[in-house]
Please model this.
Amino acid sequence: MVGKTLKSVTRAFNLYRVPECRARARILPDGKLSVNFSGTGTHLYRCSDKHFEGYRYYFLDLAGADFKIVDMKNTYLQTSTAS
Model:
């Protein structure tokens, strides 16, 4: 049930946001929800807050559940260099 709900919330969120922002969500082994946002607009502005809050509202509306954002990481600027 959790997997189907998560999939339907993510599909609804992505419906009007791709290609600017695409959410990929999964449940971690410790039971926490991990959502990764990617897309053409994710590096242009502080969209992380906006998209997390939007995803949270979709989750509340479609699944009847709420969650608290405890950590956000911007991995766009993290690059590896080869030597």
